[in-house]
Design brief:
Length: 428
């Protein structure tokens, strides 16, 4: 499609929760919006092949740190919401209040609109149930987590959340993009933005590659929502950001152990868990599809456990890591600081205590991985409290703007930031 003959009021780069939310607010207010997404827009099929294409292509959806740990994201319509665990965590009020930002009204509005509640007992699988019972018996304040899932469409014994739910049960940012399109927004999937166009010190549009051809499109408003890795790269290529941007990644390990008397392996992950904000540690059940479980077991040499998927409990340990490392143009490097390693060790000890209470044996831990890169264009450093960069007309709205180390699922926070930004821009 040739976009040069179109006139737009705003260009939104990226369709994750931040970008989709901004685009919808602007389109609903009557703005002519162009939405550029580097990934594809094929319907979610819930297959390993499609998930791999969206989230496991090196340099696009997957990045290997120099310590051999894996960082994954979603290069597709809806961004990482297409392949995440559908967990909704509220934004920490004090973190944003320190910058004069109140997200509560926007969170309340989103909660009133979107599916956001703990799973009914009928959708909590046998593995999550056993982990929860063991955690509470071991003295942990284990509770159900809010899930962005429509229970009436969800299926007991299904494992496709992380592959891309094909049943419409899991909410994704695709819903907001579709709403924006109903209000006139134009979506261009397969469009990779290379740089922001700046004239006389102001953002005037973007340069992007679509269908193998470089194009330029002009608009007085540009919102980057390319994620914690993508947005700082675009800013650097545009001469508007540092060559190497430090970031956080929310490292995760899975602690696993086999039990008798259970036949599982197909259920919604992260049905329940706990969050220790002072310690910067979170735990949850983490039943994964068999190929992913087997990859984790093989990675640490536990080939003896490859066939034990249906009877192996898995507890996720996630930490709030220090901001450090760097996002470069062709790589992302985020090795664990000593304090990060200590948090993972303490979290793993908690997970092992839960598994002991569940009578698990053959307990082992995966290598750490991560899925929430952010903090690379932080509020108070890369953008102001209104999410505007130092370049007028250029904004950023994705996990890169989170102002401090995180350790939480960011979807709800980014939706609220996007709703706040979009409503402010729409109001002029």
């Amino acid at each position: 499609m040739d976009f040069t003959s179109h006139t737009f009021d705003a260009i939104v780069v990226g369709t994750g929760p931040g970008g989709a939310s901004v685009a919808r607010e602007l389109a609903r207010a009557g703005s002519r919006v162009l939405i550029l997404e580097q990934g594809g827009a094929a319907p979610l099929a819930g297959t390993l092949a499609q998930m791999t294409a969206m989230a496991a292509v090196p340099g696009r959806g997957a990045f290997v740190h120099r310590d051999a740990s894996l960082l994954v994201g979603g290069a597709t319509l809806g961004g990482s919401t297409a392949v995440n665990f559908a967990t909704a965590a509220p934004p920490p009020p004090a973190m944003f209040a320190a910058h004069g930002i109140d997200l509560d009204p926007f969170v309340d509005a989103l909660r009133a609109e979107l599916p956001m509640a703990p799973l009914p007992d009928s959708l909590v699988g046998p593995m999550a149930t056993r982990i929860g019972e063991a955690a509470r018996a071991a003295g942990f304040a284990w509770r159900k987590l809010d899930k962005m899932i429509r229970p009436e469409a969800c299926r007991s014994g299904c494992w496709r959340c992380v592959y891309g739910c094909p049943f419409g049960a899991k909410w994704t940012a695709r819903d907001f993009v579709e709403d924006a399109q109903r209000h006139g927004a134009v979506l261009a999937p397969g469009s990779r933005v290379t740089r922001v166009l700046v004239d006389e010190g102001r953002a005037r549009g973007v340069e992007f590659v679509h269908g193998g051809r470089a194009q330029e499109i002009r608009a007085p408003l540009v919102v980057l929502a390319g994620g914690g890795i993508g947005s700082p790269r675009i800013l650097h290529r545009s001469g508007l950001g540092p060559r190497h941007a430090p970031f956080f990644s929310d490292p995760v390990v899975a602690v696993m152990g086999s039990v008798d008397g259970i036949d599982g392996g197909a259920e919604v992950p992260m049905a329940a868990g706990l969050h220790l904000p002072e310690e910067g540690i979170a735990l949850a059940d983490l039943t994964l599809p068999r190929p992913m479980y087997q990859a984790f077991a093989a990675q640490v040499g536990r080939f003896d456990r490859l066939l034990a998927h249906r009877r192996t409990l898995s507890v996720m340990v996630k930490i709030r890591d220090e901001i450090g490392g760097a996002v470069g143009q062709r790589w992302a490097d985020k090795r664990l600081a000593p304090a990060d390693k200590d948090k993972l060790r303490r979290g793993a000890e908690m997970a092992r205590a839960i598994l002991r209470q569940a009578d698990a044996r053959q307990v082992f831990s995966s290598w750490h991985f991560a899925a929430h890169p952010g903090g690379s264009v932080r509020i108070g450093a890369g953008v102001d409290a209104g999410l505007q960069t130092a370049t007028p007309g250029l904004y950023v709205c994705d996990a890169s703007v989170i102002p401090e180390p995180w350790g939480l699922p960011p979807t709800l926070t980014l939706l609220a930031l996007g709703k706040r930004l979009g409503s402010r821009l729409a109001a002029g």
